[in-house]
Amino acid sequence: MLPAAVGPPRVVPLPETNVRIRAGVGAAAVCAGLLLGGCAGLGPKSGATLAEIESWATGHGYRAETVESKPFRLFTLLRQRRADPVLVIYVEGDGSGRPSPYKPFEPTPRTPQALRMAHQDDSPMVAYLARPCQYLADAAHPGCDSQHWVARRYSAAVLESMNTAVDDLKRRSGARTISLVGYAGGGAIATLLATRRQDVGELITVAAPLALAEWVDLNMVGPLDPADDPIERPSLPAALPATHFVGGEDDVVPPLFTARFVSRRGGQLIYITDFGHDCCWAEEWPWLLERARGRETSP
């Protein structure tokens, strides 16, 4: 049973400052193409192994590294087309399958949406940061059990490890500031990291559960303990540009949770009426990114 305060995505009370966009035929056509096996240019194929992703990355100008970020080893990709003061870091979402307290999903997503989004970003320096336990063989999982991608996926240990990996990516790139972009659970991680760092110049989340406790109740996944709920953290700096995308057809992270975060903590909410949780963020990412940065008003 849904909590009384949670309604269908179509009737969520969005803040007056939100932007509503109907993506139109283009997005639907792109999504249909994906279902038919098209859009290979978006990134590595769905279900790719670590070796296949590394091979794809090398062929597209990325450098793959596994960061020792105790207690985890985190998979990263870094692409530098030219030197720039800003590094854009994409944080991956949760694993494959819908969360359940009875059957933990796999830590590695079958389709790495954040990586596909990163590959559409033509910024001079772009990095990809996987979550703990993703893209690693069992033998490379010291200290990493299933709870680190289920109940402890937003724990202090996870956040500290991710923060260390961000430091490593920034150091290797030579950047002075970072832009954090997170998809789904990666958006919650990106938001929590932004409250801890002084070098974040931009925050963008996509389909992210930013009112975490309420989202846990909706999905009946049990308490994420110890979890750091973005909506309960101090507000982000007023000068930090923050954009949060939600999809009207998203039944995994309904827009209400992000809308409540924006109402309490600020930022721009962009509501795409005909997008779901997976489709079609990566496929339409170039113009969505421009929209977030105030350089374009429509697809």
What are its keywords?
299 residues; alpha/beta; Rossmann fold; 9-stranded mixed beta sheet; globular; disordered N terminus
Structure write-up:
There is one protein chain. The chain has a 9-stranded mixed β-sheet with strand order 1-9-8-7-6-4-5-3-2, sandwiched between helices. It has one domain: Alpha/Beta hydrolase fold, catalytic domain (Rossmann fold), CATH 3.40.50. 28% of the residues lie in helices and 19% in strands. It is globular and about 40 Å long. Mean pLDDT is 81; it is low at 1-17 and 24-38. It has helices at residues 25-35, 50-59, 113-120, 156-173, 185-194, 212-219, 255-265, 285-292, and strands spanning 19-21, 62-69, 72-80, 86-91, 125-129, 177-183, 200-206, 242-247, 268-272. The chain is of the alpha/beta class and 299 residues long.
Brief rundown of the structure:
Helix content is 28%, strand content 19%. It contains 8 helices and 9 strands.
Amino- and carboxy-terminal Cα gap: 37 Å
The topology string of helices and strands comes to: EHHEEEHEHEHEHEHEH
Secondary-structure-based class equals alpha/beta
**Which stretches of 5+ consecutive residues score pLDDT under 50?**
1-17, 24-38
Total of DSSP H or I helical runs spanning 4+ residues: 8
The strand line-up of the biggest sheet is 1-9-8-7-6-4-5-3-2
